[in-house]
Amino acid sequence: MATPGYLIQDRTPKKPSYPIRDELRAYLRRYHRDRDLPVTYERLRGFHEAMPLIDADGHNTLWETVVYRAEEMPAINDALKRIYAILKVDGDFSVVEHLYIDRVDFCSFGNSMPFRVRIVNAYNENQDYFYVKKADASRVYGLELEHLLSPNRLNFLTHGNTLVEEHIAGVPGDVFIDRWLNEPTLRPIRIAKELVKFNERCFIRLLGDMRSYNFVVVITPDFESAQLRIRAMDFDQQSYNGRKNFYLPQFFKDNTPLVDFCIKHLHAKTAYQYQREEQTLMLQRAELANLRLTALLEAMGVDPIAPDENVHQLREGLADHYGSKDFLQCTTMGALVRESLAKTRARIEHDTAGSAPA
């Protein structure tokens, strides 16, 4: 992770929402991502009242708890429970009959304007969350690429203009910086290693806008200290922006403490080792999911999910970064993702061949 040449400080202009086209819809149906759902995003928008949701410290969370008319509540609650059953247990409602909907929150901040549903186990009060959002093709591509190319698996469903996502648990990145970054029980090298690997994952598959509040840190106790993993939790900016550095988390001002942390604790050769490890793992995942990834990139390759000027700007930046004019032939963001993966593989094969004994 190199020292940033400049920092991205501006807040990203609101990205338009792109509809799910036939090619992507066919892919989603083929892999059981598109299902009939008992309630839609637009139906949830018909709430009767909303009140600010305040956190335990008395701060406004930017979420509002919504209330539906009394005669509508039973049907909506039942529909939301059924969505959870489809998401978690392939629709076997008998497994989740003992759950109840505790709260529905709405957030008008951000592109997807999500509903967050809190569902609770009546026997032990254990709670879980899921989200109902306005479907956006960019976000769907981002979710599916994360599922195929990262170490993380994701459950999500689409239906018409509705997108349902499971909750991604973890410590928000900005909270981790404030409260955990210098925690003595966490080994600095493990933190820095995961930051480098996360940076590499985002860049190769062109996931943008990974400011500290758009990812979470998952901390897992181990027999020697703890292991960490950074997980993206916002996929609105999948392959949309034209700036190359927008796809490198290291260049965001919000992430400066993390970059400084890596520079302090990692030798340059060690950072390169971790980059290469993640590149190799991503390509192995791509190979395992070859048929599915190929089908996804075919749909993405004909989908206009970014303005032409953004595609042209990004392909020039990537051509310069990789030293390859092949990027200049790409006309869509999907083609750029495919070429990014291909060039990563070519680099590894070249370096491996060059280091082999004669």
**Largest sheet: number of strands, sense, barrel closure:** 7 strands, antiparallel
Rounded to the nearest angstrom, the radius of gyration is 21 Å
Q: Strand percentage, roughly?
A: 15-25%
Mean pLDDT: 92
Helix and strand run: HHEEHEEEHEEEHHEEHHHHH
Strand order of the largest sheet: 1-2-3-4-5-7-6
Helix count equals 11
Which structural category do the helix and sheet elements fall into? alpha+beta
Distance between the termini: 32 Å
- Chain oligomer state: single chain
Binned, the helix content reads 40-55%
Whole-number count of domains: 2
**Sequence stretches where pLDDT stays below 50 over 5 or more residues:** none
Please identify the top-level CATH class of the largest domain.
Answer: Mainly Alpha
Indicate the CATH topology of the largest domain.
Phosphatidylinositol 3-kinase Catalytic Subunit, Chain A, Domain 5
User: How many distinct beta strands?
Assistant: 10
Query: What is the global morphology?
Result: globular
CATH architecture assignment name of the largest domain: Orthogonal Bundle
